[in-house]
Amino acid sequence: MRVLGLMSGTSADGVDAVLVRFGGRLDRPRWTILAEASVPYPAELRQRLVEVGQGLPISSAAWLDLSEAVSELQAAAAQACDPKGHAQLIGCHGQTLWHRPPDGLRRGASLQLLQGPLLATVLRRPVIVDFRAADLAAGGQGAPLVPPADAALLGRSSGWRGVLNLGGIANLTLIPPAQGPERQAPLQGWDCGPANSLLDLAVQHLSGGEQLYDEGGRWAARGQVAEALVQRWLQEPYLQQRPPKSTGRDVFGAADLKRRLGEMDQWHPADALATLTAFSAACVALGLNQHAQTAGRAIEVLVAGGGCRNATLMRELQWRCRGTSVRPLAHLGIGDAQREALAFALLAWWHQHRHPGNAPSVTGAQRPVVLGVRVDPA
User: DSSP characters for 267-317?
Assistant: First the structure.
């Protein structure tokens, strides 16, 4: 079956699309990427999404305009990837604006901006949307949802295999080994902390809006890391919390950046950015070390997402994750911008077959559930 996956992450930089052919077993499918495309958000739309995601109040009319604009960009990405309409089904994550994990007092909730009926009608094909709701309703975090797809698409190796996405947030999958006593261990995964969320906001602030991100990590490479500050930040409650856990700009956003920059007042901008970059890498290393204490160290971490193109962030990861091989996921045939779109294509295929898509060991849900809601063209 040919399925098209659409994904836009917390960085809100655009929409990634992949057209995939799936077949074979549901838990270990055969798959081939047939086409891909990426469509960036216009600068004004991206800025609006980031602001609204940080709590900017807007009118109901503005909400409607924003959801329509996002839906039209999703459709444009699908058409760029699959201009002849070969896909039989589409899986679309939508644009996350707010994520609220369960906290013991309230159930979890998550807001992905999208007009599913509009998207299905424009593309003239059924679309699976609203992937997080069923896991949240079953008591889960609603995130991360990609680990079961990682396990199905990549399989196991001789030890714990990590898959790391460096988007706005760094999220990690840990797949149990193929052999040995840990082969019966459950799949693991969690949001480690910030990846590009604080870095992009810091660059925009420090450059006076002239730059949107630290291209190649070159600005941070000119600075010195304040290691004592990084280690102090690692003691913060979310980072010391054990999985299941998930987060977003609600924790690691503009207010959080303002607090951290306040602790680096009067610093050279390159030093501040170097320290924030090291902090993003240290959050991942901390999670891996915590896992190693109870279940074993990962032998490799395969990295995807926009952060792969930040050479300084990658060097920090390699240095802080000593004892673990850190290399691009692209070495296994899945490009930086393909991984999450591919995962939501698979989740849509699983929905079509009524196959559960979440992993309770990852999200904390009470049971496995089928993810997503099907929307047919009007």
Answer: --HHHHHHHHHHHHHHHHHHHHHHHHHHH--EEEEEEESGGGG-HHHHHHH
147-332: CATH superfamily: ATPase, nucleotide binding domain (3.30.420.40)
The Cα–Cα gap between 34 and 4 comes to 10
Q: Which fold has domain 2-142+338-375?
A: Nucleotidyltransferase; domain 5 (3.30.420)
Total count of residues recorded for the chain: 378
52 token code pair: 């609204």
Number of neighbouring beta carbons within 10 Å of residue 180: 12
What are the residue boundaries of the structural domains of the chain, listed by start?
2-142+338-375, 147-332
Cβ within 8 Å of residue 35, ≥6 positions away: 18, 19, 81, 82
Residue of 140, 154, 188, 180 whose CA lies nearest to 294:
188
Alpha-helical runs (H) found in the chain: 43-53, 60-81, 116-123, 133-137, 147-154, 197-206, 218-221, 227-233, 237-240, 254-263, 269-295, 311-320, 339-352, 360-363
Mean pLDDT by 10 residues, the chain (378 residues): 95 94 97 98 94 93 97 98 98 96 92 98 98 98 97 97 96 96 96 96 95 96 98 98 93 95 95 98 97 94 96 98 95 93 98 98 98 97
Quick check: pTM over 0.90? yes
To which residue do tokens 């700009």 refer?
249
Q: What is the pLDDT of residues 194-249, one digit of tens each?
A: 999 999 999 999 999 999 999 999 999 999 999 999 999 999 999 999 999 999 98
**Pairing state of beta strands 373-375 and 127-129?**
antiparallel
CA end-to-end span of the chain: 23
What does the DSSP assignment read for 75-102? HHHHHHH-TT---SEEEEEEEEEEEE--
The amino acid sitting at 171 is N
Identical topology for domains 2-142+338-375 and 147-332? yes
Cα–Cα–Cα angle for 319, 250, 77, rounded to 5 degrees: 80
3-state secondary structure of 115: coil
Q: Tell me the three state secondary structure of residue 174.
A: strand
Within 13 Å of residue 205, how many CA atoms lie on the same side as its CB?
18
Other residues' Cβ atoms within 10 Å of the Cβ of residue 64: 12
